[in-house]
Amino acid sequence: MGSEGACAWRGRMQKNSHAIALIRRSMDFDLEEIIQCIKRGDTDSVQIHLQEFNKEYAQCFFFDKEERNRRKQRRLEEFKKKKVRNFTDSDSDCEEYEQEDRDLFLRQNLALVLVGFIRTEVKCSLLKVTLRSLRILSRDKRVLAPLVTDSAILTLAKLAGLTTEETHEELSNPDENFYDNIIVSLAKAKAQHTLSNDDADMETSEQTGECTEEDSRSVDSGDVDGMSWVSSPPPSINETQRSSMHQKVLERGRRDRRESKIEGEGDNEGEGDLTEEAKRKEAMKVLCNVVYNSSWAQERFSTLRLIHGLIELLSAGVSSSTPSSVQFYELRLMFLMTALRPELSKQLQQEGGVSILTTALEGCLEVQWKDQNQCVLDSVAPPISLEASQRIIEILKILFNITFSSHRQEPSEEDAAQYRHLVAILRLCLMRKCMLADDTDDLQGHTVNLLSALPLQCLDVLLNVPLALGSEQFSGVNMDCVHKLLLFMERRLEQGEKVKEKLTPILNLLTESCRSHRETRKYLRNQILPPLRDVSQRPEDGSTVKSRIVRLMTHLDTDLKHCAADLIFVLCKENVRRFVKYTGYGNAAGLLATRGLLGGQSTQSISAHYSSDSDSDTEEYRQQKDHINPVTGRVEAHQPDPMEGMSEEEKEEEAKRLIRLFSKLSREDIIQPMGVDSDGRLVPMTGLGENSILEETHSDSDFEEK
Hints:
Elements: H1 3-40, H2 43-57, H3 63-82, H4 88-117, H5 124-137, H6 150-160, H7 176-208, H8 213-217, H9 239-242, H10 257-263, H11 276-293, H12 295-303, H13 307-319, H14 327-340, H15 342-350, H16 353-365, E1 369-371, E2 374-375, H17 386-403, H18 413-431, H19 437-453, E3 473-474, E4 477-478, H20 480-495, H21 499-516, H22 518-528, H23 545-552, H24 558-571, H25 576-583, H26 585-595, H27 604-607, H28 619-624, E5 628-629, E6 634-635, H29 648-667, E7 674-676, E8 682-684, H30 699-705
Antiparallel strand pairs: 1-2, 3-4, 5-6, 7-8
């Protein structure tokens, strides 16, 4: 880079530093001004400043992550232009990292101030704005420390309506010293950084021989190395160490899609939304963020027994004729806690959570009952609204969390009746549509997840529905739900993203349903495995449902390929010959090896619960049966004999060469020769090294020379 380019580059960096410094001074002023306004009771000014903060950062999630990505992109673009990194790059990096630390320092102190502020008597409109600021700050895990203390959690819980108890003296209103200490801390941080940067600037000027007035103004920034913010919680709250314990249930860094659809302009602090319900909603949102981002907050939420207040709120909301707008966030918080704390999931189940949530689900769908376990399905009913669909999905997720362990258990008579009642409502979730196609897919996906968690014997409610005009039926049985599940699986097969998460539940559900219900198995077999006629292509080739599932049988993910193979195997009534016929031995080998069926035998215990109907071959299949390659499952083109024209001695020598090759690969642990034992399972082949053929002196060296 020439001297002119270096000078221009240095000039741009100095201007950028000056702009950064102006931003820093602005942020310092804003935070100090907010503290001063709170201290002197100027609530109107506090509200104005916080509204500006909320407007600026309303769409910002994980501040530092976004800023780092933007910085990396800027450096990459500059590097592409200049093709060389100038020494000023490192200075710029340091300044940007210092700015990042400075912003974090300010946000931590702002969160601390606001937590103390909401404990005071604040009017509803200002309290809502303050809670919204805390909600924005709570998106950053490194700012959470002031929000995860017992006093902060109890304060938020009280504002959210989870508890009415008066808290301990920790919640006493902050005095003037509290705010003065923070202001002093900010001043010290600013002064320390200014001093360190003055020293650095003097060194730079000695090296370059120049120091402009603009340079001196640009060093006014904060350096928080070795500092800690005021009134930090005890060292036992170590979010950095505890973050690894956090189970990620939601996708990080993405705003809730349904929330943004429904609230629309709800983030604007309008005068028409200053109600107790709006305050509770904001407090509940902050709690959701804190609980999601902090394993310590999850533990304290459980220890403080706040789940009881949440259960009471949900019970009261279920009995109300018009659910409040806070109910979605109550359900979201319940979902987070039951997903992250197993003991709370068990506690909710023991306290009648299934009954409470089933009633809530019934209310969201406005269910009308035709019989004990049969809901009225109105074909002309309007789609499910956005508000109702979001609540329904949260309810389904919570129900899955508290019932997933009951799948293999034998339910009591009372529990079985309750589950059948729930399955009847879930049938509506499968059959009805939402206003948006994506919401319909989400609703059906969570319904499938819940159905796969319930006891199998309770799923007969899906089929015990009288036939109606236009119903999908097989042998006189209503197959509307099974058909919906089949269509749902086809859509998931076509999507091709997050394959395991999206396909495993529906594959398992259909497999278990086929094992339990003969009519379901026969219907799905006709749809997925129609009689073989064309055997000119491999079973995994093509765009049919069968070919897509067969392709999954060789997927890299073990769980997914076993789920796909299990479904085809059950549709073949767990008959090995039939299974190989439809999939080819190469695709079937994985499941057969796992179950010890490589020998081709099918035990009586496996197939005893299936009917004795035969699998008749089509005329087209019988004509080509003898020409089908059992490994690939199709008719192969005629291949010439590789040993044609070889003498017996040459054939024997070729056989010995292959044996030597396999022996060498085996000794070097590249492959392990396997065989099939009498039980049909793969076992390592022993004694190969003792073969006299392998002891010939010319074994390895001669082979390598050849």
